[in-house]
Design brief:
heterodimer; A: alpha/beta; 12 helices; 21 strands; B: mainly alpha; elongated
Chain lengths: 550, 187
C-alpha cells in the first residue's frame, strides 16, 4: 500500500489567486503543488480558430445558471490566459461600499491606500502599462471621440499587454499566439516552476477532507478532449490548502466538502456578485463617424473597425464619482466580443418581432464591422446564491468542452436594475448623440444576466455573518485553508477586477507564510518580482511584516 | 419523403426549420420546405447548423430526436390553438414563417419551462452562422461560409494568422479624467 502523497502547500487553480501564492511560497522554500482542472497550453498551442476542439473551447468555460451565466478561464493560467488584460485599480469609494448589509463590506484593514502598494507589485510583475493614444485601436479611438463629443472624459485603460508585440488580432479570448498578452504563463507561473513548484493540469479538485495534521485534497483527472470524462482520481495531503478555483468554482468545492470537513461559514456560496455587468451594442453610422467626429481610417473608410484591436482599450470613468449614491456609479468601457458570444444576445433597435433573432437580426449582423460594444461595470447587490453542488466539477457539462449548467441563481434587485438602467441611458447619451449610432442593451431574457468577472462567492469581511474569510483570506472555522481568487473580493468593483484580485493575492501571501510556519513548514517570505525586480517590494515590506507577525 | 430513413429526414428537416427561424436564409431549391426563404443569402442552415448540432463535441446529438419530436408536438398544438391545419408529417416545417417565429419566441420566453432546451438549440444554430464552429475558421472563410461572409470577418494573412498592422487613428481623442494618476487608473 502506497502512502498518500504529501506536500506543504496545495493550491487549487492556477489563475491570479493560485499563481501568485505558488510563486512566493515556492520561492520561499515550501513544497508547492498546483492542481489545475484545465489543460496547459502555451503560445504555440493557442489557435486563432472558432472550431470546436481548438483552444477557443479548450481553455474557456461558459456555465449557464438560473438568471446568471458566467464565463471563465479553464486552463493553466486561468483567467489571465483568456481575459482581455484590462488592469485598472478599483476606485477609492469601492472600498467604502456598504451594499445590502448595513455596514462596510470590506475589512477595516483594507482600503485603497492599503492596497496600492500591492497593486504596485502586480504592476511591476506582469507588467501593467497604459496604452498610448498612438496605439489605441480604432474602436477605442471612436469611443473616446464619442465621449468627448458628448461632454465626457475617456481614458486609455491600463493593461497587461505588450503593445510592441500586439497585432490587434482580437483573438485574445482564445489565448495570445504572439505572447503580447502578459498572462501568468509569462511571469508568476514559470517563476514558480523555476523555484520547484509543480503544476498538474487536467486535475479537477472535488472536495477537501481533514487529516490529523492538515487536509486531504481529492481530485479527478480529466480527459484532455472530453471534459465530461474522468480518467482517474486521487488524493494528496497538505498542511496548507489555498483555494483559487474561481468565484464560480471555489464555493462549489467547499459546499461539496462540508459534510466531511465540517460546517462552512454562511457566506460560502452566497453574496455572489456579477460585478454589475451589462453590455450594449451600437451600430455606427459610418457617415456620421466622419462628419460628427472627424475620424477616418483612409479616404474610403471612417470606421468599419470592430474586428481590429485588443478587447477594451478605452473607458469613461466620469460616473466613478464617490459623491454619487451607491448603485449609481459605473464605468463604461468600449469592448469587442468575438462572434458567437458577442453576437447572439445583441438586440435590434425598434423590434416589432423578436429582438435577438430573425431576419432583422441577420441584417444587423451584416453591419458587424460597424458595431461597437460597451461594457458596463456597476454596483450590483451581491444577490447570487449557489444551490447544491453538481456531482463533479462546478457544472453539469453538456458539451465536451466549454458549455455546462451550474447551480448559481441570481435575481437582480431594484438596486442592480437601476444601475443598469442608468448605464444604458449613459451609453445612449454618448453613442446616440446627434444620430451617431443606434444602441440597444443585450437581452437578459435568454441566459439571464451574465458576467465575465464573477466575484464575492466566498468573501472577505470583518462580520462572520456576512463573510466567509477573515481579513487574511483564511476560511472561518477552517484554519490553514485560504481563499485567494475573485470569490474573496467582497463585492462589485465598478472596473475590471483582475488587478484587484491579483493585488489581494499578493497581500494574502505573508499570512499564508505565517500559517505554514506555524505548521512546521520552513518557508521564507520576500521574493522579488518574478523577473527579479525589487522596486515595488520595498513599499510592501512593512505591511508584510505585520501580516506575517515578524 | 424520399429518404431511406424517413424518421431521420423528419428530424433533419424539423431542426433545419428551427435553425432557419433563428437566422433565416434563402431556399436552397424551389422544393426546399425546411428553409422558409425569409431572408436573402445563406442562413443558419447553409452555414452548417445541422453539422454543428450533430458534432460529438457539442453534446446535442443524443437529444436531437427528442427535440425534433417535441418541436413537432408544439407545432401541432400551436396549429390547434390558431385554427391552422398541421402538416401531418412535418408540423413545424409546415408552419408559415411568421408562425415559426411566434412559436419559437413562445418556447424561448423566460417563463417557459422548456426554455433552456430551445435556447440551446438556438445558440447552436447561431454559432453555425456566426462562427462556423464545425470548420477551421480560415478554411470556412476560404470556402465562402455565409455567416462569416455576412459579418465581413476579415481573412487571415497568408500564413493563416490574423494581424492588423493599421489599427489606430493615432491621436488623442478625449480629455483624460482629471483624477487620473500616473498608474493610468483613477487616484
Amino acid at each position: 500500500m502506497s502512502a498518500t502523497e504529501r506536500v506543504d502547500v496545495l493550491i487549487v487553480g492556477s489563475g491570479f489567486g493560485g499563481a501568485i501564492p505558488a510563486y512566493h511560497l515556492a520561492a520561499g522554500g515550501a513544497r508547492v503543488l498546483v492542481l489545475e482542472r484545465g489543460p496547459w497550453l502555451t503560445a504555440d498551442g493557442f489557435d486563432q480558430d472558432f472550431k470546436f476542439g481548438t483552444s477557443t473551447t479548450r481553455i474557456f468555460d461558459f456555465v449557464v445558471g438560473d438568471g446568471m451565466s458566467v464565463l471563465g478561464g479553464n486552463c493553466v493560467g486561468g483567467g489571465s490566459v483568456v481575459y482581455f488584460a484590462a488592469m485598472p485599480r478599483a476606485p477609492r469609494f469601492v472600498f467604502e461600499r456598504r451594499g445590502s448589509i448595513g455596514r462596510r463590506m470590506w475589512p477595516a484593514a483594507l482600503d485603497r491606500d492599503a492596497l496600492d502598494p500591492w497593486y504596485d507589485r502586480v504592476a511591476e510583475a506582469l507588467p501593467v502599462t497604459t496604452t498610448s493614444w498612438e496605439k489605441v485601436p480604432y474602436i477605442g479611438g471612436l469611443f473616446a471621440a464619442a465621449c468627448a463629443a458628448a461632454g465626457h472624459t475617456a481614458n486609455p485603460v491600463p493593461t497587461a499587454i505588450d503593445d510592441e508585440l500586439c497585432t490587434n488580432c482580437n483573438w485574445m479570448m482564445s489565448g495570445c499566439k504572439f505572447d503580447a498578452k502578459r498572462s501568468l504563463l509569462l511571469n508568476y507561473l514559470p517563476a514558480a516552476v523555476a523555484h520547484g513548484a509543480e503544476i498538474r493540469p487536467l486535475h479537477e479538485v472535488q472536495k477537501i477532507t481533514r487529516t490529523g495534521a492538515g487536509y486531504r485534497v481529492h481530485y479527478n483527472t480529466i480527459d484532455e478532449v472530453d471534459y465530461r470524462q474522468a480518467t482517474g482520481s486521487g488524493a494528496i495531503d497538505a498542511k496548507i490548502v489555498v483555494i483559487a478555483a474561481g468565484a464560480g468554482a471555489t464555493p462549489v468545492i467547499l459546499q461539496r466538502s462540508e459534510p466531511e470537513l465540517g460546517a462552512m461559514p454562511h457566506a460560502v456560496g452566497r453574496y455572489f456578485s456579477g460585478n454589475g455587468e451589462r453590455l450594449n451594442t451600437a451600430v455606427l453610422e459610418e457617415d456620421k463617424v466622419r462628419e460628427l467626429l472627424g475620424l477616418t481610417r483612409d479616404e474610403a473608410t471612417a470606421y468599419l473597425g470592430y474586428q481590429i484591436g485588443k478587447g477594451p482599450t478605452v473607458a469613461s470613468w466620469d460616473r466613478l464619482d464617490g459623491a454619487l449614491p451607491e448603485y449609481e456609479r459605473f464605468s463604461l468601457e468600449q469592448l469587442y466580443f468575438p462572434p458567437g458570444f458577442g453576437t447572439i444576445l445583441a438586440q435590434i433597435p425598434d423590434a416589432d418581432g423578436p429582438s435577438w433573432f430573425g431576419a432583422r437580426k441577420k441584417e444587423m449582423i451584416g453591419q458587424w464591422r460597424s458595431w461597437l460594444t460597451t461594457f458596463t461595470m456597476s454596483e450590483d447587490d451581491n444577490e447570487g446564491v449557489f444551490g447544491p453542488p453538481p456531482p463533479t466539477g462546478n457544472s453539469s457539462r453538456l458539451s465536451q468542452q466549454l458549455l455546462g449548467f451550474g447551480s448559481l441563481s441570481y435575481r437582480p434587485t431594484p438596486n442592480t436594475l437601476r444601475g443598469w438602467e442608468l448605464s444604458d441611458a449613459a451609453v445612449r447619451q454618448i453613442l446616440e448623440h446627434n444620430g451617431l449610432s443606434r444602441v440597444m442593451p443585450w437581452t437578459n431574457d435568454v441566459v439571464g444576466a451574465y458576467s465575465v468577472h464573477p466575484l464575492a462567492s466566498c468573501r472577505l469581511g470583518d462580520d462572520p455573518a456576512t463573510s466567509a474569510l477573515d481579513d487574511t483570506h483564511e476560511l472561518r472555522g477552517h484554519p490553514g485553508v485560504f481563499v485567494t481568487d475573485g470569490s474573496a473580493v467582497p463585492g462589485a468593483l465598478t472596473v475590471n477586477p483582475a488587478m484587484t484580485i491579483a493585488a489581494l493575492a499578493e497581500r494574502a501571501v505573508p499570512a499564508i507564510v505565517k500559517a505554514a510556519r506555524a505548521r512546521g513548514v520552513e518557508v521564507s517570505y520576500g521574493a522579488p518580482a518574478p523577473d527579479g525586480g525589487t522596486e515595488a517590494r520595498r513599499a510592501t515590506a512593512a505591511a508584510a511584516a505585520v501580516l506575517i507577525g515578524d | 419523403m424520399n429518404s431511406d430513413d424517413p424518421g431521420r429526414e423528419i428530424r433533419t428537416m424539423t431542426l433545419e426549420a428551427f435553425a432557419d427561424t433563428i437566422i433565416p436564409g434563402e431556399k436552397r431549391s424551389p422544393q426546399d420546405r425546411a428553409v422558409a426563404g425569409a431572408a436573402p443569402g445563406g442562413g443558419a442552415v447553409a452555414a452548417g447548423a445541422i453539422a454543428i448540432l450533430e458534432t460529438p463535441e457539442g453534446g446535442m446529438e443524443p437529444s436531437l430526436g427528442d427535440l425534433a419530436a417535441a418541436l413537432n408536438g408544439h407545432a401541432a398544438r400551436y396549429c390547434a390553438e390558431h385554427g391552422l391545419e398541421p402538416d401531418p408529417e412535418l408540423p413545424f416545417v409546415g408552419l408559415a414563417s411568421e408562425h415559426r417565429i411566434a412559436l419559437a419566441a413562445e418556447l424561448m420566453a423566460p417563463e417557459h419551462p422548456e426554455k433552456m432546451f430551445w435556447v440551446g438549440l438556438a445558440m447552436f444554430s447561431y454559432m453555425a452562422f456566426d462562427t462556423g464552429a464545425h470548420m477551421h475558421t480560415a478554411q470556412a472563410l476560404a470556402q465562402g461560409h455565409p455567416g462569416l461572409l455576412t459579418l465581413g470577418f476579415a481573412p487571415p494573412d497568408p500564413d493563416g494568422l490574423w494581424r492588423f498592422p493599421k489599427s489606430s487613428y493615432r491621436r488623442a481623442l478625449a480629455p483624460l479624467h482629471p483624477d487620473t494618476s500616473e498608474t493610468g487608473s483613477l487616484k
